[in-house]
Amino acid sequence: MKRFRALTLVMMLSLAGCATEEVGPPKPELPKAPAEPVCQPTTAGTQLTGQWYFVRQQKGVAGEVQTLMTLGADGKLKQQTRVKQGRNIRSELRETGCWTFDASSLKTQVVRSNGELVDFDDPIYTVHYQVDRVTGDRLTFRESRAGSKPMTAKKMPPGFLLN
């Protein structure tokens, strides 16, 4: 009887090793993140390449909004925006993406905000500006929407940082 139990146990263990995992319906693939846009070098906006610093007041925001916008010749955009109230920095945003210039229209497209990919289809990440005038060290422009006010940016030397 003991031999029978031992033999039964060995057979059960052997058969258990042969058992396969049940195969259910295939698991759905997770949607792939859209490919990041590839920035295109610019020739039309060469007078815009460089670092531009501007300060503005924004309705509903206490303090001033400071922006350092870097437009690279390779079509890449770096933008640092902060809200400063007195000596206190209340919030800061670091964005990267692409920019294009056509005649008098500057378009910026944010790809990453604080390091995270954004929804490229969300219009909040695409801004169109009407460029009114560009001189050696001054840029006068406005958002291309009704009621926007002109902003003047000062060209800053390479390596300039907001502090």
Structure description:
Helix content is 10%, strand content 44%. With 163 residues, it is mainly beta. The chain has a domain at 46-156: Calycin beta-barrel core domain (Lipocalin), CATH 2.40.128. Strands 1-2-3-4-5-7-8-9 form an 8-stranded antiparallel β-barrel. Strand 3 and strand 4 form a beta hairpin. The longest helix has 17 residues, at 2-18. The chain starts with a helix and ends in a 7-residue tail after the last strand.
What is the CATH C-level name of the domain at 46-156?
Mainly Beta
Kindly state the number of beta strands. Answer: 9
What is the CA–CA distance across the termini? 87 Å
Helix content: 10-25%
Computed Rg? 29 Å
Look at the structure and name the CATH superfamily of the domain at 46-156: Calycin beta-barrel core domain
CATH architecture group name of the domain at 46-156: Beta Barrel
Largest sheet: 8 strands, antiparallel, barrel
Mean pLDDT: 85
As for the CATH topology of the domain at 46-156, it is: Lipocalin
Strand order of the largest sheet: 1-2-3-4-5-7-8-9
Number of distinct helices = 1
Structural class given helices, strands, pairing? mainly beta
Q: Give unreliable regions as ranges.
A: none
- List the secondary-structure elements in sequence, H or E: HEEEEEEEEE
| Structural shape | globular
Please state roughly what percent of the residues sit in beta strands, choosing from under 5%, 5-15%, 15-25%, 25-35%, 35-45% or over 45%.
35-45%
